[in-house]
Amino acid sequence: MVDEEHGSPAAEVFDALGIEYEKAFASSSAHRASLDWLLARLAPGSRVLDVGSGTGRPTAAVLAAAGHRVLGLDVSPVMVEIASRQVPEAEFRCADVRRTPLEDASFDAVCVYFSLLQMTRTEQAELVARLARALRPGGLFALATVPLDVEEFDGVFMGQPVRVTGFAAEDVVAVVRAAGLTVQSQESVMFTPTHADAMPEPQLFLHCRREETEPAG
Asked: Which domain of life is it from (predicted)?
């Protein structure tokens, strides 16, 4: 499915990168370990939302191969076309998750791998809270980001100009906790994408569970 409103800066970046993004991050053992964390805890046939699903690999492909029902959302029509071709067992939609209706308690797990960094801090915090509400009580939430304390920083990512906003690691944890998520494990790594124009980057992986009751306030 294609959303008519896909002309965002993030869409332009990932339309240009296409399959090169998948190749650059294919060697990430931390990402695979994060998926293993989910696989070990998900009930058979779980419904999973993959935010910023990219080419569908590895996240949607691994989860769908394990028998889970995966819905991937991405703003890049190029990425959605690649993902739909590579992982036909999953469903992919070209849409901005910030404007996509999500029913409360409708997913068993939500994955957010590096898909917040071109949003403002307010948008990131609001989206994490909304994604947490989309989880059933006790549902799982996996988030990965680059934990840099920067706001609207103009940089270059794999040869593409990007404007990045991030949080320091402790502030990322605070955002997910404020959304009613309990951090069960976290891992910090340095990773260098396999690409001529890529630089080493810090990465933070959080593995969380939605609390059974709403957070106070």
From this structure: Bacteria
- If DSSP codes are grouped into helix, strand and coil, which group holds residue 45? coil
Residue type at 56?
Answer: G
Whole-angstrom CA distances from 46 to 31, 69, 178, 181 are 20, 6, 25, 19
The continuous run of DSSP H or E covering 15 comes out as: helix 9-17
Whichever domain contains 30, its CATH number is 3.40.50.150
- Count the domains in the chain: 1
User: pTM of the full predicted structure?
Assistant: 0.92
Question: How many CB atoms sit inside 10 A of residue 92's CB?
Answer: 28
Q: Any residues with CB less than 8 A from the CB of 29 and at least 6 apart, and which?
A: none
Q: What are 14-62's pLDDT values in tens digits?
A: 888 889 999 999 999 999 999 999 999 999 999 999 999 999 999 999 9
Q: Which of 55, 48, 56, 166 is nearest to 111 (CA)?
A: 48
d(CA 115, CA 2): 18
> Model confidence over 166-208: pLDDT tens digits?
999 999 999 999 999 999 999 999 999 998 888 899 999 999 9
